[in-house]
Every structure is written in C-alpha cells, then in structure tokens.
Specification:
The radius of gyration is 21 Å and the shape is elongated. It is mainly alpha-helical. 67% of the residues lie in helices and 3% in strands. It contains 5 helices and 2 strands. It has a two-stranded antiparallel sheet with strand order 1-2. It starts with a helix and ends with a helix.
Length: 121
C-alpha cells in the first residue's frame, strides 16, 4: 500500500512514517516508480514503534529493541546484552520516578480541590 493508505491504516502521519524510515526503524518496499510500498508486516512494526514512542522510549533504544521483537537481531548480535538491559531498566526507573512525582502533584491538587469544595472557595 502507498504511504497515504499506510498512514490511514496505522493512524501515523505520512511525515512520521518517513521519519521512522529515516531513523532506520522501518524499511518499506518500493514500487517501480520509486513510491514507498508498505506491507502489513511494516504496518504492524509501525504500530509497535508508535506504542514504544508513546511510552517515552527514545528512538535510539527502540532501534535496538525492534530486532529482538522480531525474534533476533539483524546482525546476529544478541539484543539482550547486559549493557542494553541496564539502560532499559535505568529508563524504566526514571519513568517510575516521574510517575511518583506526578501522583504526588495530583494528590496535592485533589487535596486543594477538596478543601476548596468544603470551604466554598
């Protein structure tokens, strides 16, 4: 399918699809006229990429994760090396810290709103 249809099917803009390609995250086929040709497996990969980006993972880590999600790495190197796993855990820990801060802020706002409701402010 061409980029417009791939965009519609995946819910990802054509610009984002081109960006994913520029970053080496996807490699769409090409029609004889040079237009991109997105197969279903590429669309499936785009959906995974979008989910990982929405979770806050940087493109660099996603690029390293993707081969492992397809059953191995592209160059024969194990994806789950200790250094990489350490980096993913570190990212997860930073994310957990941010979640804690946001929960504390939400609790403070909830307390303020409850106080305002009961005092009529």
């Amino acid at each position: 399918m061409k980029i417009g249809e791939a965009s519609r099917v995946s819910g990802v803009s054509a610009r984002s699809l081109r960006h994913y390609e520029d970053e080496g995250l996807i490699v769409p086929g090409r029609f004889g006229n040079g237009f991109r040709d997105y197969c279903q497996s590429t669309i499936d990969r785009v959906l995974v990429i979008r989910t990982l980006l929405e979770s806050g993972l940087p493109v660099r880590l996603i690029r390293e994760i993707l081969p492992g999600l397809n059953g191995g790495s592209d160059d024969g190197t194990p994806v789950s090396c200790a250094e990489f796993l350490h980096e993913v855990r570190s990212y997860r820990d930073r994310l957990a810290t941010r979640v804690t801060v946001l929960r504390d802020q939400q609790a403070a706002l909830d307390a303020y709103l409850e106080q305002a409701r009961t005092t009529g402010r």
